[in-house]
Design brief:
The chain is mainly alpha-helical. It has 28 helices and six strands. The protein has four domains: 138 residues, no CATH class; 190 residues, Zincin-like (2-Layer Sandwich); 119 residues, no CATH class; 98 residues, no CATH class. Helices cover 65% and strands 4% of the residues. β5 and β6 form a beta hairpin.
Amino acid sequence: MNFFENQDQARRSTRWLVIVFILAVLAIVAVIDLAILAAFGFASVELQQDGSWFSAISASENIPLLAGGAIATTTVIGLASLFKTMALRGGGGKVARDLGGTLVSADTSDRRRRQLRNVVEEIALASGVPVPEIYVLEEESGINAFAAGYTPADAAVAVTRGALEKLKRDELQGVIAHEFSHILNGDMRINIRLMGALFGILVLALIGRRVLIHSRFASAGRSKDGAPLILIALAVTAVGYIGLFFGRWIKAAVSRQREYLADASAVQFTRDPNGIGGALKKIAVYSDGSYLREDSEEISHMLFGNGSKMMMFSTHPPLTERIKRIEPGFQEEELETIAARIMRDQVREEKERKSNSEEKKKPAGFDLRNIMEGIGHPDFERILMAATLAAGLPVPVREAAHSPEWAPEVMFYTLLHDDAEIRERQLLAIAQNMGSESESQVRALLSSSGPAKPEQRLPVAELAFPALKRRPPDFLAKVLTTVEALSRADEQIDVFEFLLARVIARDLWESANPHAARIAGNKSLAALRDDALSVLAILARHGTENAETVRSAYQAGVSVIGGESGELERTVPGDWAAVLDKALPRLDKLKAKDKKVLVEAMLAVVLHDEQLQPTELELLRVVCELIHVPLPILSAGQ
């Protein structure tokens, strides 16, 4: 199943979730109504002189009683779900912080946290998405992790302290790759919506469990008036467990197959089944496994492994089944041997892993099919390329990208022109908009590292994004104004500069408004054909100056979409920037399967001459970014 099919499936799962949620609420309402009738009926029966019983509540009074119970129940569930949904508008970072997560700073000196940040950044760059916020759950000794958020722009990845301490680099890489699969395949959005929707049900379960544990109604039951209270207590407990039953059932139904998919994607990411397989085996052999000390009921479906010992409707498939799907020949008896080996020779295994990881395979030449299959599933070569690219960045630029104080200047640095005269006008614009100190910082980056290379500009911007978005909204508005000024400093709008400004603005907006962001729509390519043709024509025109090559590249893209191409000259007016400003937001609303066709058409345009120049590569990636398609990192020299 490819990226676009996963997006479609995610949308269907969301609709299915709404239906099941309504059914669960109706079942709970029915049980509560029965409990209310039983409690009030028991409270109002009297023994007559002839030995018979009668109820003080007449049949006509049952309907208002049932209606009141139904309204009260749905109101409680609805308000609780709304409250939780509103609380989660802060995105993935909010979920991580609520669980006690500590943000991993970009300048951390801790070896394990630096390794974690390197792994996350490598996979993010390889995947073509902004680097997510990174958290560590310091109080959790079990091996676990999760990714949370509405879109990649507001995503957060969190791992437990146990995962950092017990997993080797390749195993940690497998776990993080698993979580990135959830980010890329749309699972994050389902998961965070599931938290909000089910909170109204699960809050009844939490109340019920606490009533069962702390109930003092037993003592009250010794009096003749205590029977109704006992019934109500039992009803609350029963309803709580019904809520827990439905909550776990819904989460299990949604998440189990997605976990298998994420495991398979992790193997494809890293090309090393021993990585994620080793992590799962260590969960199986360690006494604390993947369990969390914090109550994980709400987020159980988001975790890498089970957060607690669930006897009913576990959100995750059995560990042995997950391992066998990764390693078909695995036998459960191996776990005892693994446990002994973990205690005996960790040092030797680390040396062997380092030796094996240094063996690099010759990368296969890319083609349209390889690139399309890599969307949302970057392979090990892409991760190696990302690691090489990150390591090749000038040290001052790489360090500045991780600093909130320098992140804006890093963005400005990526937009500096090669021409010295134009560059001076850009630096003047920085001084006018941001102040002389900002200009001095950009000059310092330029002096220490030279102008940014074409293939480095977008990755540098992606690295700087997590630090940039932590700045205040008013400051970010000034940054966007300055970016716009830099792109117009030469009185000609560069395509990449124009689109990079749009990517920065879009990602910052989504990080501040994650609940309102959308990564797919329901529009058809046929309805937006003119917009698609305009984008193809702009790509073709900016790939070469040769008129015949432009025309053939454009036709290559049109042939993928099908139908008549129209005249190239009429497809794109002179103000191409205005065309893109209108076309790309509309194309972002395409259905996933139609986005797939559009991306194939764009790739056909830039690959028609079987070459990919850095300028074409940059342009292609930012266009895909603006329609929420994470194009994996590619090598122009490949």
